[in-house]
Design brief:
alpha/beta, Rossmann fold, 2 domains, 4-stranded parallel sheet, 13 helices, globular
Length: 384
């Protein structure tokens, strides 16, 4: 039996968990994760402090079964939560668009006092590099977002000629995307040869409010005198836009392919823009599966993390130094300059070079090969 709190598995649905559970020494599983359905305030993001700084109240009725080894307690974090690096300050450091919470560290003394660490495991979507780990509180890396499509293998063929330079998809108007909108527009890169979307979650979601919000956020990064003459490009709702939860539908990749195959390259606006850590999610996974060359606006050392996992990127074709720059503004500025250089160097209407196609094929095969193998093994470990 699975006991779950505010978490839904799209990794081959509940059947996978039931199948894995049959091999486990535990009778039941209590799964605790981020509760996305409670009120979210800056002082209490998704009520995590309320829940995980006072975990006993959520375990009281199951505590005896956990102590006796009948129930395994699984803290399963599927988003940008749960740990901090040695370079971050818990609850103080603003890591890009999210605050840093060390829930793993909050839980440890409580679970130790309850004497149940032997039957607990902590699952995080963030790399385990540069975090403080406890020998008696097991922690594993299992990236829910990046693993979303491992059970949905499709093989789509790249076009031999293209009608668009690149595709750039955005939903929430976070600062790195807003600043990129400004710099890309100033560089005249958002024209009829580009497919892009920009959804703004502003009051009423009206265009006027959206523009006001964008200008407000830009004022933190751009001199107000420069903004006076800046005309925000049209906010496009392209046909390739997916609803928030449609991202997890098995048909999402096929729907996106109708727009992707028109474009020579993908510009990815990642979830976050941290200077301290990296979070891979479904955006880069989609690009890998759809075999699209990519440039990433996101966390510092994002590409380095991909390399560590065995993927290849495109430093042999263009400058990828943007990946190591210390701030979001510097990384975005470098990305825009790199895009200009790419479309000066390459004829984007023609088939991509064979050497680049070899990288795309490698990444696709690696995702459905070693990455899937490791994800499956770790998933078994979580429920063992």
């Amino acid at each position: 039996m699975i006991l779950s709190n505010s978490i839904h598995f799209f990794y081959d649905e509940k059947n996978t968990i039931d199948k894995v559970a049959k091999t486990s020494r535990y009778q039941d599983f209590l799964i605790l994760g981020t509760d996305f359905f409670v009120t979210n305030t800056p002082d209490d993001v998704f009520s995590q402090k309320k829940i995980f700084k006072n975990i006993y109240t959520h375990l009281e009725k199951d505590l005896n079964d956990i102590k006796q080894g009948k129930t395994k307690l699984i803290f399963f974090f599927i988003d940008y939560w749960g740990t901090k690096t040695i370079d971050e300050i818990d609850e103080v450091c603003h890591s890009g668009c999210v605050d840093t919470y060390n829930i793993y560290g909050w839980l440890y003394p409580q679970l130790k006092k309850l004497d149940i660490l032997e039957h607990c495991i902590f699952v995080t979507s963030l790399s385990l590099d540069n975090i403080i780990k406890y020998d008696d509180f097991k922690i594993v890396y299992w990236n829910y977002s990046f693993n979303l499509y491992l059970q949905t293998k499709i093989n789509l063929i790249n076009s031999k000629n293209y009608t668009k330079k690149f595709i750039w998809l955005n939903r929430r108007a976070r600062d790195h995307r807003i600043y990129a909108l400004y710099t890309l527009s100033k560089a005249n890169l958002l024209d009829e040869n580009v497919i892009y979307t920009f959804h703004v979650y502003a009051p009423g979601n009206k265009v006027k409010n959206s523009i006001d919000y964008i200008n407000q956020r830009l004022s933190f990064y751009v001199d107000t005198n420069l903004l006076k003459d800046f005309q925000i490009p049209p906010l496009i709702d392209a046909e390739c836009t997916l609803d928030e939860y449609e991202l997890y539908n098995k048909n999402a990749l096929i729907k996106l392919y109708e727009s992707y195959h028109l474009c020579w390259l993908e510009l990815i606006s990642e979830y976050n823009y941290s200077d301290h850590r990296v979070f891979l999610d479904e955006k880069i996974a989609k690009s890998i599966i759809l075999k699209k060359p990519f440039i990433v606006i996101g966390d510092k050392n994002f590409l380095k993390e991909l390399h560590k996992l065995g993927f290849k990127t495109f430093s042999g074709f263009w400058n990828e130094n943007y990946d190591t720059l210390p701030t979001m503004v510097e990384r975005v500025d470098c990305v825009v300059k790199t895009l200009q250089e790419i479309f000066f160097k390459y004829n984007w209407k023609e088939q991509i070079p064979n050497e680049m196609q070899e990288i795309l094929d490698h990444n696709y095969n690696h995702y459905y090969g070693k990455i899937k193998e490791t994800a499956d093994q770790t998933f078994m470990e979580i429920f063992s």
